[in-house]
Amino acid sequence: MSNKYTLISHKLCPYVQRAAITLAEKGLDFERIDIDLANKPDWFLQVSPLGKTPVLLVNGQAIFESAVICEYLDETTPSRLHPEAALERAQHRAWIEFASATLNSIGGFYNAADAQVLDAKAAELNAKFAQLEKQLGDGPYFSGKNFSLVDAAFAPVFRYVDVFERIADFGFLNYHPKIQVWRLSLQGRTSVRTAVSEDYPALLSAFLRARHSALSALMQ
Known about the structure:
Blueprint: E1 5-9, H1 14-25, E2 30-34, H2 42-47, E3 55-58, E4 61-64, H3 66-76, H4 86-110, H5 115-135, H6 149-167, H7 177-187, H8 190-193, H9 200-209, H10 214-219
Parallel strand pairs: 1-2
Antiparallel strand pairs: 1-3, 3-4
């Protein structure tokens, strides 16, 4: 008997995208339920102790935290996305954590209160991208020809960059040709494209515009 998977999500949550991409890469059928995090239903609080998305229900049993969800799916279904070698697998887990740190820097960027802080946060992001560029090989993915959980972790990062570039030229990725190749490869992958709704760019732009931040001022 096959498992029944239900992904509880929020349309703008980048960590939800990781789980959705992993489910798609594994070829697993799943139901997706979007919730409003500003008005959380009682049933959601019962399955998500931290009150965050994503949550994966496996035959009604809840797993929360995106990294845990992706690891569980990789361990329990065929076509592993993690490397077989233990050392390389550990290195991949470390770069997934680096992706989370990059998302934190992105949050600091779009919440920057004034132009000076915005510039500082842009520099912080660029420093992370420079570190990432040094790690990459010939591509097209993080560790070569095979798609991995690191790719699933960074796809939402580049989605933010896509929207930021429509606002102004912040210099993200201008001097990082390997990341550009990687970014375009991810954009063309079905699992990445279908991880968000068609109105995602518009929803993200509206979210950024409503932040009352230095970035939102540039969008007016």
